[in-house]
UniProtKB/TrEMBL annotation, chain A:
The keyword Oxidoreductase applies. Residues 15-190 form the Transketolase-like pyrimidine-binding domain. CDD domains: TPP_PYR_E1-PDHc-beta_like. This is Alpha-ketoacid dehydrogenase subunit beta. InterPro entries: THDP-binding (IPR029061), Transketo_C/PFOR_II (IPR009014), Transketolase-like_Pyr-bd (IPR005475), Transketolase_C (IPR033248). Its cofactor is thiamine diphosphate. The keyword Oxidoreductase applies. The lineage of its organism: Bacteria, Pseudomonadati, Pseudomonadota, Alphaproteobacteria, Rhodobacterales.
Automatic annotation (TrEMBL), chain B:
It holds the Pfam family E1_dh. Its cofactor is thiamine diphosphate. InterPro entries: DH_E1, PDH_E1_Alpha_Subunit, THDP-binding. GO terms for molecular function: pyruvate dehydrogenase (acetyl-transferring) activity. This is Thiamine pyrophosphate-dependent dehydrogenase E1 component subunit alpha. Residues 25-322 form the Dehydrogenase E1 component domain. The keyword ATP-binding does not apply. The pyruvate dehydrogenase complex catalyzes the overall conversion of pyruvate to acetyl-CoA and CO(2). It contains multiple copies of three enzymatic components: pyruvate dehydrogenase (E1), dihydrolipoamide acetyltransferase (E2) and lipoamide dehydrogenase (E3). It catalyses: N(6)-[(R)-lipoyl]-L-lysyl-[protein] + pyruvate + H(+) = N(6)-[(R)-S(8)-acetyldihydrolipoyl]-L-lysyl-[protein] + CO2.
């Protein structure tokens, strides 16, 4: 893994992305009696992706609550609980199922503070396994960051490493407003060094995970790793790509992106969600509206998901979202002025 | 002796004369608030729309009779009555209607979002059925934190066909949560009759599917509503779980300001107006010696004055600063 959270003096242990999230939840349950976990099959089963694991044995069914298969109702219960003094972490089995709960997330959680003139808050955390690559086809593989990123009142994060996953979940818990945490399914087994104890990875701050001078690649979640792979290969050809791990979709870290593009003069946005009206459009527009526009040496490039639901066939599935060779190809063209 | 006692309505037996007089005052306040809102709308002082609950005052006030500030309510898009019943100040409510900074939501919410979280009013809701799971969540908080407060969840007949209704009732039942679902069946979801839209005859029958008691009562009879709620609240506070109470009532006005009332007859409306819950409760209090006619008039006059003062307060209040349009979206901007 890339060392995005170098905390030299702090003890670290190697663990997977899923274990890092579980550790964050265990720390939260230990520290604050108001924290409860809610979700489908998160108890004895340990969660669809085994993220909650044995937490029910350690904290009991009152703190680690299996909900019925009721996404709308369950999300709404979490909203009501957050409004009145609990700090619920609600797990969707798949982010796709959040579509069933859009009403409570978008009409209630996101708006309550504003509609009530700041007289209430909804400190709820929604965890959502996201993305494709598991062969689960169209209804279990989507990437919704742009959907939720479009809603004022929500914060949306996409950690890319175990250390980030733990730190961002703890940051989400400390946040008095609703936060959606997209966890990429293919990252759950990824291992990395994770600091001990309670720490937060700030929401709204991107990280330059590989410095470079020839072009900027903005990515998040699993795309960060694919971009880093591509960058490593390009470096052998003398092309130095700067890779930015967005980490937060909303609020977007404008300063880091603008500063990087001013330095490199070229921008490639890589994201798993469908290309049209997605994250790349937002980031491109950000540059087009900023002083970085004058520094551009080439048109901005977007590499997003295909204009199709995620297909079942493994080759089609790979073709539906950007892969490392795709990133490498487009980045090379961009760096060489071929676009 | 026993017969005599049973002939006395529940509310008269249960509550003190002061509590009963206060209940009558609140019913007048609701009626006059909404008439005042309607008039302000006609005079162009209020924009947007509004959903009036005139004719449903007994349901709101009797349901909230035994609640304290620690108890919670969630309300509907037709929620003015619930807010006043829970203790909201009509001045701040008018200010919210007028979009003023002094309103309950600092002018960001309007009629459909009035809330006062400090006194347990978790807010009206513009989404039909939106408050149902939220109420269950509030009840979950009470149970988890060992508080003995209860949550009353108001919703209309229309909401009983939303998925949120079924999911919320089921979760409240499996976790035995201290929440009371109060359906105000005013016969129409906008223009669609409940008799057409709902398969069961009484919405309270749906309680059976969630293994909780269901009661259908005359929602224009203050005592009938208060009695049903007394039972349901006792059950909730004892840890025995949720109940569903259906108050059969009627809204005299249209669904909202755009309603041309094509789906119901003048006769039907007049028939229901003759069953005015306020007059009925007032007469009951007089019949049982709680009040005399003069006392009743004084209560109504005091409510009228409170509404006039409220409108004046709202008119004189400042509007929010235009530059504050994004204030309150997030915590850090609320300072």
């Amino acid at each position: 893994m890339n060392a995005q959270t170098p905390i030299a003096e702090v003890q670290t242990r190697e663990m997977s992305y899923a274990e890092a999230i579980r550790e964050a939840m265990a720390l939260a349950l230990q520290r604050d009696p108001a924290v409860v976990l809610m979700g489908e099959d998160i108890g004895t089963y340990g969660g669809a992706f085994q993220v909650t694991g044995d937490l029910i044995d350690r904290f009991g069914p009152d703190r680690v609550m299996d909900t019925p298969i009721s996404e709308l109702g369950g999300a709404g219960v979490a909203v009501g609980a957050a409004l009145t003094g609990l700090k619920p972490i609600f797990e969707f089995q798949f982010s796709d199922f959040a579509a069933l709960a859009m009403e409570q997330i978008v009409n209630q959680a996101a708006k309550l503070r504003y509609m009530l003139g700041g007289e209430a808050q909804v400190p709820v955390v929604f965890r959502m396994p996201s993305g494709s690559g598991t062969g689960a086809a169209a209804q279990h593989s989507q990437s919704f960051e742009a959907w939720f990123g479009h809603v004022p009142g929500l914060k949306v994060v996409q950690p890319s490493t175990p250390a980030e996953a733990k730190g961002m979940l703890l940051a989400a818990l400390e946040d008095p407003d609703p936060v959606i945490v997209f966890e990429h399914k293919l990252l759950y087994k990824m291992k990395g060094l994770v600091p001990d104890g309670w720490y937060t990875t700030p929401i709204g701050k991107a990280a330059v995970v590989r410095p470079g001078k020839d072009l900027t690649i903005v990515a998040s979640a699993i795309m960060v790793h694919r971009a880093l792979d591509a960058a490593a290969r390009l470096a052998k050809e003398g092309i130095e790509a700067e890779v930015i791990d967005l980490r937060t979709v909303r609020p977007l870290d404008h300063a880091t992106i603008i500063a990087s593009v001013k330095k490199t003069g070229r921008l490639l946005c890589v994201y798993e969600g469908v290309k049209t009206l997605g994250m790349g459009a937002e980031i491109s527009a950000l540059i087009a509206e900023s002083e970085a526009f004058d520094y551009l040496d080439a048109p901005i490039q977007r590499l997003g998901g295909a204009e199709a639901p995620i297909p079942y066939n493994p080759d089609l599935e790979r073709a539906a979202v950007p892969q490392s060779p795709d990133i490498e190809r487009v980045a090379r063209q961009l760096a060489k002025g071929e676009v | 002796m026993r017969d005599t006692q049973e002939n006395i309505p529940f509310a008269i037996r249960q509550f003190s004369p002061d509590q009963l007089k206060e209940a009558l005052r609140k019913m007048h306040l609701i009626r006059l608030f909404e008439e005042g809102a309607e008039e302000s709308y006609m005079r162009g002082l209020i924009h947007g729309t509004m959903h009036l609950s005139i004719g449903q005052e007994a349901s709101a006030v009797a349901t909230c009779m035994e609640l304290t500030d620690a108890d919670k309510i969630t309300s509907t898009h037709r929620g003015h009555g619930h807010c006043i019943a829970k203790g909201a100040d009509v001045g701040r409510m008018f200010a919210e209607f007028f979009g003023k900074e002094t309103g309950y939501c600092h002018g960001r919410g309007g009629s459909m979002h009035i809330a006062d979280v400090k006194t347990g009013n978790l807010g009206a809701n513009g989404i039909v059925g939106g408050g149902l799971p939220i109420a269950v969540g509030a009840a979950l908080t009470a149970k988890r934190l060992g508080r003995d407060d209860v949550t009353i969840c108001f919703f209309g007949d229309g909401a009983n066909n939303e998925g949120a209704f079924h999911e919320a009732l089921n979760m409240a039942a499996i976790w035995k949560l201290p929440v009371i679902f109060v359906c105000e069946n005013n016969r129409y979801g906008m223009s669609t009759p409940a008799t057409y839209a709902t398969a069961v005859k009484n919405i309270a029958e749906r309680a059976a599917a969630y293994a909780m008691p269901g009661m259908t009562v005359d929602g224009n009879d203050f005592s009938a509503v208060a009695g049903a709620l007394h039972e349901a609240i006792a059950r909730a506070r004892a840890g025995d779980g949720p109940s569903l109470v259906e108050n059969l009532t009627y809204r005299w006005r249209g669904h909202s300001k755009s309603d041309r009332n094509r789906y119901r007859t003048k006769d039907e409306i007049e028939e229901w107006m003759s069953r005015d819950p306020i007059a009925r409760f007032r007469d009951e209090l007089i019949a049982h010696g709680i009040l005399d006619a003069e006392g009743a008039e004084a209560i109504e006059a005091a409510a009228k004055q409170a509404v006039a003062d409220g409108v004046e307060f709202a008119r004189a209040s400042p509007a929010p600063a235009i530059t504050d349009v994004t204030k309150f979206v997030h915590a850090e901007e609320a300072a």
